[in-house]
């Protein structure tokens, strides 16, 4: 089933809204699978599935090759979710794939007729990658960075906005309370509408904290996949 979806990637990115939405759910499902599926090597080492790593690169290429807004939003979500892991894996092989992806993004921002909001999302992603995907390193080899011992601990943290438009970051003492309010107030991944809906909101909340739970849309697609597979097995 996954192979069929994968092989039809170019057609899917050019399809109608329903086709593209289903394809995007598939892409993000594979991203979740890549992050969570562990494979034990012959020497007991744990690695990720290399076939998924290569597959995600080709899915990104397909999305950027058809740069309509919804495809670009999916690509941003995918890189936000897996970018740091993919880049580390590619670097281990001596590959420069992430640089190529960033170059494609910059070309899209310059040339594609996507909306201003989507271009802003792409630029924010490039900015995130330039900060090493927001990863903060320890101040010394033996000390883990904490807000107490590293003055730059919150430097790369994203900025959110309350319902009143007041900015806050993880450095804010009321961060957890304000962020929970943000989650309850709005869906961080609104479905894009062709009529120019503002994707970023007043302060571009943008999907900044990704937890271990699957997006409801991905979870629904995954459950449907499991049910259909079980039905075919019984047949």
UniProtKB/TrEMBL annotation:
Signal peptide coordinates: none
Keyword terms: Cytoplasm, Translation regulation
Domain of life: Eukaryota
InterPro entries on file: ARM-type_fold, MIF4G-like_typ-3, mRNA_TranslReg/HistoneTransl
Keyword Cytoplasm: yes
One cellular-component annotation, GO: cytoplasm
GO-annotated molecular function: RNA binding; translation activator activity
Gene3D superfamilies recorded: 1.25.40.180
Biological processes per GO annotation: regulation of translational initiation
Compartments in which it is found: Cytoplasm
Domain spans labelled MIF4G: 1-132
Start and end residues of each stretch annotated as Disordered: 192-212
Main location: cytoplasm
Name of the protein in question: Polyadenylate-binding protein-interacting protein 1
């Amino acid at each position: 089933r996954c192979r069929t979806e994968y092989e039809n990637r170019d057609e899917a990115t050019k399809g109608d809204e329903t086709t593209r939405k289903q394809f995007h759910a598939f892409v993000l499902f594979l991203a979740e699978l890549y992050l969570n599926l562990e494979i034990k090597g012959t020497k007991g080492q744990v690695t990720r599935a290399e076939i998924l790593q290569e597959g995600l690169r080709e899915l990104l290429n397909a999305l950027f090759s058809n740069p309509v807004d919804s495809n670009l939003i999916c690509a941003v979500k995918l890189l936000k979710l897996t970018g740091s892991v993919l880049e580390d894996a590619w670097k281990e092989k001596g590959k420069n794939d992430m640089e190529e992806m960033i170059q494609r993004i910059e070309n899209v921002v310059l040339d594609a007729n996507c909306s201003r909001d989507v271009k802003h999302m792409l630029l924010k992603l490039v900015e995130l990658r330039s900060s090493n995907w927001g990863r903060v390193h320890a101040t010394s080899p033996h000390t883990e960075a904490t807000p107490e011992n590293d003055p730059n601990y919150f430097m790369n943290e994203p900025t959110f906005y309350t319902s009143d438009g007041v900015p806050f970051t993880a450095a804010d003492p009321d961060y957890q309370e304000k962020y929970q309010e943000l989650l309850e107030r709005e869906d961080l991944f609104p479905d894009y509408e062709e009529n120019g809906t503002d994707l970023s909101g007043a302060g571009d909340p943008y999907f900044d904290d990704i937890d271990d739970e699957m997006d409801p849309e991905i979870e629904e697609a995954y459950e449907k996949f499991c049910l259909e597979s079980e039905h075919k097995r019984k047949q």
